[in-house]
Protein 1
Amino acid sequence: MSNDERTFVMVKPDGVQRGLIGEITSRFEHRGLKLVGAKAIQLDRELAEEHYAEHEGKPFFEGLVDFITSAPVFAMVWEGKDATHQVRRMVGETDPAESPPGTIRGDYGLDLGRNLIHASDHEDPGSNEREIELFFDDDELLDYEQVTAEWQY
Ligand code: RTP
Ligand code: MG
């Protein structure tokens, strides 16, 4: 478990439209994670289908691609100790109705199809690196010292 694990996070169209980019990103900042990449983009179907390829053929797949391409998203890369697992714990369960208060989905969502945020799956090893590569070029990612780190680790 390294202190510089990187994970991919995306505020979905509902989160952007509801003005929750700041609320969501500030949670990761306050937790002590380091932001190493960020951009607002609108996904085309090709990128959306590749990103959610594991769900191809499932009944919700087309609706999921429709939704995720329907408006801009805010894509980010966060770095820190055990980042992929820790971010997923902060995100909550897939269904916001099953996510405890204190999690992002549990605090801001009610509906499975409108769950505000995507984060790489710690139970799918390599998904973090695969997703970062899919959304970001190397020169869009930063490598810098965060002065608070010595107080955290
Ligand atoms: P995500 O990939 O978006 O971070 O969500 P997740 O890991 O928590 O959940 P996943 O199983 O990867 O599902 C991706 C998205 O598909 C929608 N979904 N709908 N039964 C259903 O109707 C159903 N199951 C999943 C959700 O919006 C979920 O975030
Ligand atoms: Mg997933």
Protein 2
Amino acid sequence: MNKLQITLAVIKPHVVKNLFALESIQKRIECEFEVVGIREVVISREMAERFYAEHRSKFFYNRLLSFITSGPSVALILAAENAVSKWRQIMGPTKVYKTIYSEPDTIRGQFGLSDTRNACHGSDAMESALNEINVFFPDFDFEEWRKNHPTL
Ligand code: RTP
Ligand code: MG
């Protein structure tokens, strides 16, 4: 069943440095989603630790934190029907090599450089979206927003 959802997207630092890539992704987003919030942010170590807490024990954790704090990122709250899976489909698979034959038109296929520098982030469920949105947009009032979007 289709239902209105919100999700958190993060455009990662190597893409934000590339104006062509950033504009192309923003245009794609604007065609597919309502942009509920957008902010450019240099992610601090403390924010990154909260955001990536589930990956604390992974071998790539330190590399991931160094990368994500290395320069400005762009965080967006996106709304659409099935926004979580829709954005993840547009992003493509985590591992960029998997995009080469089957999903070259995804954002990770176009702008991903490696498993860690894979261009963008997308929440994996509405519950994680709300927690992640809180890291980037602590003033965002989901209940207030939902009042004006009764189909959520
Ligand atoms: P995301 O959370 O960023 O939307 O990506 P995802 O669900 O597709 O991937 P996840 O498993 O949650 O991994 C989070 C981020 O960690 C980095 N990563 N590096 N082998 C590696 O070096 C590796 N594996 C994952 C990526 O930046 C990934 O997006
Ligand atoms: Mg994930």
Protein 3
Amino acid sequence: AASAAAPDDGGPVVHLFQWRWESVAQECEDFLGPNGYAAVQVSPPQEHVVLEGEGYPWWQDYQPVSYRLDQTRRGTAADFQDMVDRCRGAGVRIYVDAVVNHMTGTGSVGSGPGSAGTEYEKYAYPDLFGDGASGYSEQDFNTAECGRDIEDWNDPWEVRTCELLGLSDLATGDAYVRETLTAYLSSLVEMGVAGFRIDAAKHMPPEDLQAVVGGLPGTVPGWDEPPYVFQEVIADSAIGEDEYTGIGDVTEFDYQRGIGHAFADGDLQAAKGVGDGALESDSAVAFVVNHDTQRNEPTLTHRTDRDRYDLAQAFLLAHGYGTPKVMSSYDYTANDQGPPMSGDGTTAATDCSQEAWVCEHRALNAMPTFANATAGEAVSWLDDGSQRGRAALERGSAGFAAFNATGEEWAAGFSTSLPDGTYCDVASGTFADGACDGATVQVEGGSVDVAVPAEGAVALHVGAMVEGDG
Ligand code: LAG
Ligand code: CA
């Protein structure tokens, strides 16, 4: 397969939410590398709280106990390193979800051994790296400055200094805390981790975050590029995305809300304009849902309307806005429910043939190769705008795609600047070593006729020509 676009050129990402490390490694080799993914966002790898009394919820991960990678519910440090190496071998980067704003909250127990056995209580984490050499104590938190929950969300100082959900808030203005966080993230880069999602970035002053990531190694071993940093910022009138774009990319929640509503409403004419007025494309991470919005703001998810949601994620990979990030979920009925697991809360290996793991990314086939082949090409619209539920686009002369959010097949012809030839439809199949396992479509004399399935897409690009490319 052709190599994926670089992180800063919008190389497509998939979030394998809660997957075990060995399952991620296997998926890199079996599916992600061959289908063009640039990277996987993995769940937080550091030691976390273990909340048996709450049924081992997924959000244990967002309460760090130490920065040890051994042992989380997803595997050991050796498993983690093996995943980084095997994904590298498949051409796929690992992006780590970096929980650096806070440590634990009160939760169901409030203290205890963490997943790797480290003793802790709120504001006291005595052994951060398993060598007894460094810890956090009360002075490393904003207890004297605030020490209570955020109440006034219109006050940026409070949002950044007080506690999010009662989680012990790190004094990221202090040199020791900054150096410790840089040491944690740098140790991951040294292992070959190629990027970070900064959790709760809005809850840290930009200058603090800049100081933390400014100390990272300039080049990722195994990749000839700097670590890619993107920040989770749910912007509002008090805190803007532009405060963070100088540090790295930013998650664009306006795009997320816009794309979700447009596709849920079946209004693909509205989908064309999603992203207008939002962050510049090259500063944005774009997505249909993340692990929080699929629970808290379920406009369009795998649970509300699977076909339409798949179509929205396919559109995301063709649209050309931002760095596209696909969500891949496990099934759940309650928001707090953890992933498939054994009796002690250890996560089960992923099996995409079982309903417990939704594996939405598999339904997108080789759409990430479309994002790669069309990187940097502006989008133009080919349909006449007369059909609310249907739209067709072109990305320069590198890619053509049509989307049909209706219950009837859409048979249509378009003039296209794609070169003449036979193309693999990467929305319906994969393309590897010149072989297409989906439908093929002819471009002849500068035009193309497509039969777009009900609630489906057709996507053609110059990196997936079956013949006629000479
Ligand atoms: C995030 N981004 O800024 C994550 O995307 C989001 O998933 C995290 O919340 C949050 N910030 C903190 O990293 C998740 C759950 C929360 C959970 C929290 C800590 O959505 O529900 O809070 O992780 O585990 C839980 C309880 C709270 C309690 C808190 C502290 O739900 O009621 O106050 O733990 O004990
Ligand atoms: Ca903070």
